Amino acid sequence: MAALLKGASVAKAITAELVERERKLESLGVVPTLAIVRVGEREDDLSYERGALKRCEKVGISCRRFLLPADVSQEELLRVVAEVNEDPSIHGCLMFRPLPAHLKEDMVAAALLPKKDVDSMTSASLLSTLSGLGAGYAPCTAEAVLAILDHYGIDLDGANVVVVGRSLVIGKPVASMLLARNATVTACHTHTRDLADVCRRADVVVAAAGHACTLGADAVRSGQIIIDVGINWDAQAKKLVGDVDFEAVEPLVDAVTPVPGGVGAVTTAILARHVICAAEEACGHVVRTMQ
Ligand SMILES: Nc1nc(=O)c2c([nH]1)NC[C@@H]1CN(c3ccc(C(=O)N[C@@H](CCC(=O)O)C(=O)O)cc3)C=[N+]21
């Protein structure tokens, strides 16, 4: 039986620190504010939105939602981004991705002011995460993975870590952040040969492929720590599931994060931290505690 690496205790510790910082901001007359931009009604976006709203309420962050239909035009979406940029009372912006296929995501991302980019949409933020230089915010989910590993005292120095998935939202940035912590990182993807064999050699597996049941019993062994980043809608069971076949994997490994209640729960705490940082920056009260 594996230890369950629940996100709640990690998120709770982060939230407690943020409540203090929010009080300080409020005493300066600043209400930290997050803009949430959602196009359409994808289940994973809705789940993130529910989690983010709840977390922000706990911290004292005000949320302004911009809800757009799935067939919104590029011009209309860019108009919303301009509104977010120009409103000084908004400190950070979370726009759910991927956007529907008819929208040019890179153009929309480029329109957002980097200082309001709390989830690493812009190339400025992404470059600072990949290079370890600069001042941008890392993608919340990637930072959440590191926060969970740190909270549960999992040593990354020299550890063999396999990351499954190479997206710009999670796979690539989390691989860079793990490298910066001196892990030996193997980046796997759809063309990787013998994925299960590669995973079995790891000390830590970060599953971020975006498909349910990417990793089953054949990909794991005892002694391993499994971090499941996946948030997939199981239409049959009508629930969210991870990238790992939890029932098959849980009896075999040492520790695993649940879905929901694992990485997702911490992602919202990191998002809240970035909004507080952005609000502090905006009012010149610079106390960066970014990792
Ligand atoms: N730009 C962008 N960045 C993302 O990181 C991103 C995204 N777009 N689009 C959608 C997916 C999905 N995702 C979730 C994060 C947290 C929860 C979360 O807080 N889940 C709660 C459950 C909340 C509930 O369902 O009520 C939990 O796991 O405990 C869920 C899903 C981030 N994604």
Automatic annotation (TrEMBL):
<dbReference type="InterPro" id="IPR000672">
    <property type="entry name" value="THF_DH/CycHdrlase"/>
</dbReference>
<keyword id="KW-0486">Methionine biosynthesis</keyword>
<dbReference type="InterPro" id="IPR020631">
    <property type="entry name" value="THF_DH/CycHdrlase_NAD-bd_dom"/>
</dbReference>
<keyword id="KW-0378">Hydrolase</keyword>
<dbReference type="Pfam" id="PF02882">
    <property type="entry name" value="THF_DHG_CYH_C"/>
</dbReference>
<feature type="domain" description="Tetrahydrofolate dehydrogenase/cyclohydrolase NAD(P)-binding">
    <location>
        <begin position="139"/>
        <end position="281"/>
    </location>
</feature>
<dbReference type="GO" id="GO:0005829">
    <property type="term" value="C:cytosol"/>
</dbReference>
<feature type="binding site">
    <location>
        <begin position="165"/>
        <end position="167"/>
    </location>
    <ligand>
        <name>NADP(+)</name>
    </ligand>
</feature>
<comment type="pathway">
    <text>One-carbon metabolism; tetrahydrofolate interconversion.</text>
</comment>
<keyword id="KW-0521">NADP</keyword>
<comment type="subunit">
    <text>Homodimer.</text>
</comment>
<dbReference type="Pfam" id="PF00763">
    <property type="entry name" value="THF_DHG_CYH"/>
</dbReference>
<dbReference type="InterPro" id="IPR036291">
    <property type="entry name" value="NAD(P)-bd_dom_sf"/>
</dbReference>
<dbReference type="GO" id="GO:0006164">
    <property type="term" value="P:purine nucleotide biosynthetic process"/>
</dbReference>
<comment type="function">
    <text>Catalyzes the oxidation of 5,10-methylenetetrahydrofolate to 5,10-methenyltetrahydrofolate and then the hydrolysis of 5,10-methenyltetrahydrofolate to 10-formyltetrahydrofolate.</text>
</comment>
<feature type="binding site">
    <location>
        <position position="231"/>
    </location>
    <ligand>
        <name>NADP(+)</name>
    </ligand>
</feature>
<keyword id="KW-0658">Purine biosynthesis</keyword>
<comment type="similarity">
    <text>Belongs to the tetrahydrofolate dehydrogenase/cyclohydrolase family.</text>
</comment>
<dbReference type="GO" id="GO:0004477">
    <property type="term" value="F:methenyltetrahydrofolate cyclohydrolase activity"/>
</dbReference>
<dbReference type="GO" id="GO:0035999">
    <property type="term" value="P:tetrahydrofolate interconversion"/>
</dbReference>
<dbReference type="GO" id="GO:0009086">
    <property type="term" value="P:methionine biosynthetic process"/>
</dbReference>
<keyword id="KW-0368">Histidine biosynthesis</keyword>
<keyword id="KW-0560">Oxidoreductase</keyword>
<dbReference type="GO" id="GO:0000105">
    <property type="term" value="P:L-histidine biosynthetic process"/>
</dbReference>
<keyword id="KW-0554">One-carbon metabolism</keyword>
<dbReference type="GO" id="GO:0004488">
    <property type="term" value="F:methylenetetrahydrofolate dehydrogenase (NADP+) activity"/>
</dbReference>
<feature type="domain" description="Tetrahydrofolate dehydrogenase/cyclohydrolase catalytic">
    <location>
        <begin position="5"/>
        <end position="119"/>
    </location>
</feature>
<keyword id="KW-0511">Multifunctional enzyme</keyword>
<dbReference type="InterPro" id="IPR046346">
    <property type="entry name" value="Aminoacid_DH-like_N_sf"/>
</dbReference>
<protein>
    <recommendedName>
        <fullName>Bifunctional protein FolD</fullName>
        <ecNumber>1.5.1.5</ecNumber>
        <ecNumber>3.5.4.9</ecNumber>
    </recommendedName>
</protein>
<keyword id="KW-0028">Amino-acid biosynthesis</keyword>
<dbReference type="InterPro" id="IPR020630">
    <property type="entry name" value="THF_DH/CycHdrlase_cat_dom"/>
</dbReference>
